[in-house]
Amino acid sequence: MAASTLTEVARLAGVSPATASRVLNGSARTPGKDIAERVRQAADSLGYIPNAQAQGLAKSSSGLIGLIVHDIADPYFAAIARGVQDAAREQRKMVLLATTGGGPAEEKEAVAAFAARRADSIVIAGSRSCRAEDQEGNAQLAAELDRYCRNGGRVAVVGHPVVGATALEGYHVVEVPNQELAGRLATELAAGWDGDFVIIGGPDGLYTSDDRVRGFQEGLARAGHRPAEVLRSAFNRSGGYEAGLQLAARIKAASAGNPAAPKLCIFAVNDVMAIGAAAALRSEGLRIPRDASIAGFDDIETLRDFRPALSTVRLPLEDIGRLATRATRPRPAGQDQEAAPDEAVTGEVTLRRSTEAAAV
After folding, report:
1. Disulfide engineering: 164 pairs with which of 50, 92, 135, 142, CB 3.0-4.6 Å?
2. Which fold has domain 6-59?
3. Minimal CA–CA distance to 216: which of 203, 205, 230?
4. 64-176+319-327: what fold?
5. Global pTM value
6. pLDDT tens digits, residue range 332-354?
7. Homologous superfamily of 178-314+347-355
8. Per the omega criterion (within 30 degrees of 0), is the bond before 341 cis?
């Protein structure tokens, strides 16, 4: 059955379509109480569903927040999304979700779709990239975001600014101290550790990964330890697994020639890569921490069920989502509209059994 129209509601209520629209779409110009009640009764009897875009025009707000993540199945992004949802409820708004796979060209398409639906604000969570293959996508995404902000939209980006974006109004970056925290992790792991370190990093040019690699190397240097070797792989569990297979072969070869050879301490730049690497080591008959130590970064919820308990850096992921969403709220008149959020993202190093110097 075809949906009822606003014209049909107006005819049944005995008013003009403009009057019916003001009642049902939330305009500040509202008719008298009796007329409004008559319109609502007519709408109920016809099963009329108000047009969300028309409501947005009437209220100058759609009540929608767009959220762009790389992969909602990744616990890192799922936790941020929960925080965004919590903050959206505070504002009595709904969240529209787009999962892009991580490319800036796909993020641009998501921004355009949200803008077309008059989303009040957009939150983007995902690592920025300066890789050559992302250059065109970065330019397209930056242009789309600038256009959106010029038209009154507000944007919060988690981590790093979008490459090439020039918007000055309505644009916020929620910085995450990845480099600093990775350095602190390295310094604590290096205390009393005589073996070598290996870093499993994402593709070169991926900002989040590069920050964590750089910070870890700086932390080793402060501890007087030689630099770690860096293995590059995909920034996900599969990438960690592939790197773990390489390291498993190396560990087995070293122990075969010298059973007393120093162990490796592996730092994967996110927890899902660490989980993948640990799975690869187990598949080759190696045990953690007996044959190798391993640490990750993020402290995702999945780690509650991971054994042995994984050393990592804990980030307040849900709080990051809340902070980003709150940063896009219009500020009261007279307050600096582009003031930074009152809170700053912090984290903490959490050492667990996966990096014990010797198996218990």
Report:
1. 142
2. 434 Repressor (Amino-terminal Domain) (1.10.260)
3. 230
4. Rossmann fold (3.40.50)
5. 0.80
6. 544 544 444 446 799 999 999 99
7. Response regulator (3.40.50.2300)
8. no
